[in-house]
């Protein structure tokens, strides 16, 4: 690239940053003006991804009775969306539990056919889903929304998946994974293409739990500028490596996000996610009810915590601070020396040098 080209890119980036900062600040001011400590924003949607993200800790092998209780809890709590798992290709993942595939028969055994007011969703990973076959037309499914997840290099595949799901009658979201590793120019090139698609919402996804609140505020403001100009919404999916998932969810909401992900007791891969009970306790909308979530956490998740190791711990903190995937921390926590922090810290630093 020529020096002139680099200078042009720099000016474009500075202008975009300035515009995004102005729009982000305006969006935050508008949100705060609408919001107060005694009112609520009716446009906010809560999505419970307990079974999908939590399934990453047990290969999606929750018992049907467990999933049904979470479903009944979400209905009673007034949650807007419940994510039941993945729509994964069995040819790629032949031996996982049922919530890796979310077949219609398995879903109906949980939710039945009676209307409940909650919308059901599943996640489809780019290049890991036989979406033409396994995602049925909307009228033949209990699902209402397909969440397409992709890395930035998979955006072309994700766009085809979004169109396919939209044409079949579903709401759609785009969840850009490992956002913290994407270069800014590449990020906005991708987002500009995605918001031109039929997608309903684009997500700020903190896959590694590395973002601080000011970064979430800045990113959400930039996402919101692009999304709102195209008539789309913004979502937030946070991980709790640095115990910021809840704070970052609130920060994103104030900066313009309206789709808010959470899980019961924070259950999710590694350090887990924004706890649903914290989020519902913060939101003032009277349609939300905390008591059913507390009862479910008491009855199911306290015993589960003796079987699965999730939630904040120092190894997850370290992978978050270093902006790396938590797989090494998960491996350490499953070993015979789960609290060997110093050796793990040294090993991480060797890998990132």
Structural class by SSE content = alpha/beta
State the distance separating the first and last CA atoms: 28 Å
CATH first level of the largest domain = Alpha Beta
What is the CATH architecture descriptor of the largest domain?
Alpha-Beta Barrel
Radius of gyration (Å): 20 Å
Strand order of the largest sheet: 1-2-3-4-5-6-7-8
Shape: globular
Task: Compute the number of strand runs.
Answer: 8
CATH topology of the largest domain: TIM Barrel
Task: Kindly estimate the percentage of residues that lie in beta strands according to DSSP.
Answer: 5-15%
Describe the structure.
With 353 residues, the protein is of the alpha/beta class. It has two domains: 45-304, Aldolase class I (TIM Barrel, Alpha-Beta Barrel), CATH 3.20.20.70; 314-352, no CATH class. It has helices at residues 3-34, 50-54, 64-77, 104-111, 131-134, 155-167, 184-195, 213-229, 245-254, 276-282, 291-304, 314-321, 327-333, 341-352, and strands at residues 45-48, 81-86, 119-125, 145-150, 171-176, 201-206, 233-238, 259-262. An eight-stranded parallel barrel has the order 1-2-3-4-5-6-7-8, surrounded by five helices. The radius of gyration is 20 Å and the shape is globular.
